[in-house]
Amino acid sequence: MQTIRIYLALFATSIKARMEYKTSFLFYIVAILTFYIGQMGLLFVLLNRFHHIKGWTIGEMAFLYSLQAFAYGFTNLIFSQLIHFDQMVVDGEFDRALVRPLSPLGQVIFSKFEVSTVAHLIIGFIALYLGSHLAGIVWTLNKILIFPVVVVGGVLIAGAIRLTVTAVAFWTLRNQSLVHTVIFSSKEFIVYPVTIYNRGMQVFLTFLFPIAFINFYPAHLFLSRSGEGLLHPALEMGTPLVGSIMFAVSLFMWKAGVNHYQSTGS
Amino acid sequence: MNPKLFFKFISISFQKQVTYRFDCFVGIFNGLLYVFIFTSLWKALYSQFDTKEHNGFTLHAIITYVVTVMAVRISFTMDDSIIYKKVQNGSIAMELVRPTSFFFMNLAENAGHSLFHILARTCPIVLLSAILFDISVPFEPVRLLAFLFSSLIGYLLLSMLNFITGLLAFWFLEIFPFMLFKYALFTFFAGGIVPIDYFPEYLKPFVHFLPFQHMLYSPTVILIGHVPLEKIQPIIITQLAWLLIMSVLCVLMWNAGKKKLIIQGG
Predict the structure, then answer these.
(1) Which residue of B has its CA nearest to A48?
(2) Does B177 contact A24 at a Cβ distance shorter than 8 Å?
(3) B63 interfaces chain A, CB cutoff of 8 Å
(4) What band does B19 get if pLDDT is binned at 50, 70 and 90?
(5) Residues B177, A28: C-beta atoms closer than 8 Å
(6) ipTM of the complex
(7) Helix (H, G, I), strand (E, B) or coil at A139
(8) Is the Cβ pair B184, A38 closer than 8 Å?
(9) Which residues in chain B (196-215) have CB-CB distances under 8 A to chain A?
(10) Using CB atoms, which residue from B48, B181, B194 is nearest to A45?
């Protein structure tokens, strides 16, 4: 109970710090929105010309995009500090976290909350509305209940990837470019339905680097696409399971990293 | 500015980059990842129709475009936060007392950065893509020369855009939103992902009125032979006109910025 209260205090402080410059904060949100609208705009340009991508119409693509926006939005909220973790190690800031009587991971996570999540959620809701409307999704009670479960599963997958690639910093110290490739560039893969890639890449995105579970597989459930184009129909239910397994593995990696850790002495 | 000094700065900036070898490999991998995603996307789009050509591009031509434009884009990569950092830590004051032009110093630093990118990223990516994909560029000496000239102007335009964005640091504490905004416009309008030919007709006049296409799209279409030889001259003249407009803007911004500048003692 006491621990939770400390975490909440850390959380409140980090939000307050971010809200200190209100205009800057608002402008930041607008800039991120513009960026994502630009990305969606290019999709629109392509779909305007080609009508669909491997059978995915504009509404279905929007829905695909919304699942991705929600998953990465919440992942940014929780795991954003991990991106600069190598800096914390190099500066010796992480040493402080180790001597305190709280979980080191908890302290790293709660030391900063990325408020740009607001922009992700706005985009997520716009895409969700457009997607549901254009693709004619019938929101049964079942689907409404499954939706948050899928988003949480997606957050676990994206969070696990971040945690794993961050844990690498314990061994390599500086790893910014790796972090950027694995976390940001790879996101580009699932803007499009995974079926546009060759079989080898589909297998890779399903079993080895399973980001296809963030949006592509569960989207079939909501869009009632009845398993077409899937490696196996059962995969559309896989998101929560894949998320839990990956997160457990990444926690293990993190613990191994902490045990390996030796201060840089800065 | 003394050319000897200019090249000295290029070489220093180049050497700075060489130190990060691991980053370099990740960079190549990152570039290939994007080439793979976008070639897959276009293959999927083209496979949906019986028509072999869309907006003047055959599948072969669009793949060539995607690889070439990516190569140009990676070659043009520069650190656009240099000015911002200099304003933040106060070292901009040093630039003011130097007898050299700040713009050309900045350009030299960028050029060293880009030169490194051309050797360490563009070359391997183009080589690997040429093996993996079916790409071909017409070999005409005039075209090649025109491409080199056009890319040089494109590069200057992009560094001026970055210069102007960077100078905003004189007026604003935080310029990251501006950079994101600039990046969004650049991604959408420069033709780095979707060539301008695919844009809907009602957007085209607007796009043609902006400078962004002259940074990536123009040099690329000249090189791959998408425009006939006699059309090259008007393109380059428009580019030169933009170069003039942007230079005037740079001078105005720099002079206004110098007056505004307050060094925070740092």
Answers:
(1) B200
(2) yes
(3) no
(4) low
(5) yes
(6) 0.86
(7) coil
(8) yes
(9) 198-200, 203
(10) B194
Contacts B200 to A, Cβ<8 Å: 45, 48-49
pLDDT per residue as tens digits for the range B187-202: 899 998 999 999 999 9
Contacting B with CB below 8 Å, chain A residues are 21, 24, 27-28, 30-32, 34-35, 37-39, 41-42, 45-46, 48-54, 172, 175-178, 180-181, 185-186, 188-189, 192, 195-198, 201
The DSSP annotation for chain B comes to --HHHHHHHHHHHHHHHHT-HHHHHHHHHHHHHHHHHHHHHHHHHHHT-S-SEETTEEHHHHHHHHHHHHHHHHHT---TTHHHHHHHHSTHHHHHHSSS-HHHHHHHHHHHHHHHHIIIIIHHHHHHHHHHS-------HHHHHHHHHHHHHHHHHHHHHHHHHHHGGGT-S--HHHHHHHHHHHHHHS-SSS-GGGS-TTTHHHHHTSSGGGTTHHHHHHHHT-S-HHHHHHHHHHHHHHHHHHHHHHHHHHHHHHHH------
pLDDT digits 0-9 by tens, B70-120: 999 999 988 888 888 888 887 888 877 777 788 888 898 889 889 888 988
H or E segment to which residue A5 belongs:
helix A2-19
Q: Would residue A92 be called left, alpha or beta, if left means φ above 0 and alpha means ψ between -120 and 50 degrees?
A: left
